[in-house]
Specification:
206 residues; mainly alpha; globular; 10 helices
């Protein structure tokens, strides 16, 4: 995202407020909170230790996994929509960045967060609903063909900035280049397992 100095001088405090607001929303750890509230244990000590919906699903509690997925996505969407309503699209982009960073590095969990797929989708839904649908279509196609959820998410994410550019979303494209790089980095272990052929497939029991 390129912001000229004059624009930053005039709007900098709003950009910063949007970033902080998004971060605080994004750092809400829905997975651990939902698991704790339902007496289902500490999610960080279950399965992979990840705080996202995929790890919740490993407990066999599909309803809780769905609730986690929705919560992690909506915190990105809400951050973007609220910031856009009060301060406009530029601040909304900053709020989206903040929400994603909040999920990856939540202050409440000593900055040890999730991999960001759901929040990535939530931010995308708030900023560019049509591109969100394109992401979903790509994910479904790759997941159906390979049964690798991680591969489907990575392919869809890598293509997202180009799709945003094709639809004329310039600032959003710049934002999602950053988000995609971060998401790929958080999936380093998944990528290694994909290369080794040891990554779990959809529906495969651990």
């Amino acid at each position: 995202m390129l912001v000229d100095p004059i624009s930053w001088t005039l709007s900098g405090p709003f950009f910063l407020a949007g970033l902080v607001f998004g971060y605080l929303l994004g750092s809400i750890p829905f997975g651990p909170v939902i698991m704790w509230a339902t007496g289902s244990g500490d999610l960080r000590k279950i399965g992979s230790g990840n705080i996202g919906a995929t790890n919740v699903l490993r407990t066999g509690k599909k309803g809780l996994a769905a609730a986690t997925l929705i919560g992690d996505a909506l915190k990105g969407t809400v951050a973007v929509l609220v910031a856009n309503h009060f301060f406009g699209p530029n601040v909304a982009v900053m709020a989206g960045l903040g929400a994603f960073l909040g999920h990856l590095f939540p202050i409440w969990l000593k900055f040890r967060g999730g991999k960001g797929v759901a929040t990535y989708l939530g931010v995308l839904l708030g900023l560019a609903p049509l591109v969100f649908l394109a992401f979903a279509a790509i994910w479904l196609a790759i997941a159906f063909a390979t049964r690798y959820s991680s591969l489907a998410a990575l392919v869809a994410a890598v293509l997202t900035p180009a799709i945003l550019w094709a639809f004329g979303f310039v600032q959003e494209r710049d934002l999602f280049i950053i988000l995609t790089v971060l998401m790929v980095w958080k999936h380093t272990d998944n990528i290694k397992r994909l290369i080794a052929g040891t990554e779990s497939r959809i529906g495969q029991k651990s």
